[in-house]
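#struct-pred
JK: can someone run the complex with inosinic acid? inputs below
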Amino acid sequence: MLRPLITREQIELKLDEMADAIRDDYAGQRLILVGVLKGSTFFLADLARRLPDDVEIDFCQVSSYGGGKSSTGVVQIRKDLDINIEDRHVLIIEDIVDTGLTLMHLKELFATRRPASLKVASLLSKPEARTHDTLVDYIGFEIPNEFVVGYGLDYAERYRNLPYIAVLHPEA
Ligand code: IMP
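RT: done, structure tokens with the ligand placed:
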């Protein structure tokens, strides 16, 4: 059962705000957006279209969830970046920061490649679920500790296509 949590309109307004902040902070600097596959793709596409012309886009894929609702606690890189990020301004684009494990791991990995700067934008954050303290520079919405789907987020690859975000409840 799906319970709508964040509407399409609320997402649109939030993206405008986030893009304004990012544009101001990176004025005059060329940015690489690094999307974390697959959940961030909708967010990245909509955010990138709100940013100035000269933005580069790359993707990485990690796995910490085995297709279900809870993390396995092990982060593996399944697809690394194509772009060399040394001396570049990198903004990691995440769909959701839950425990913080994935993000902490990614930041540690990318930091070893000596980017000029490394920041993170996440559409959603579940502060109550955090077990790994890691800074998220731009947060769209803080949400309760419930499992959500839609706008890129999945449950076993389903529901990514929903244009809004909903809480997924087990079937009654
Ligand atoms: P973390 O490492 O626990 O912070 O988990 C981050 C990743 O877990 C996200 O990028 C998502 O892919 C997935 N995830 C965490 N919470 C949810 C959720 O509520 N719905 C769908 N995916 C989630």
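RT: quick notes.
Residues 36, 39, 64-65, 71, 94-103, 147-149, 153 surround inosinic acid (CB under 6 Å).
The mean pLDDT is 94.
JK: thanks, will look after standup
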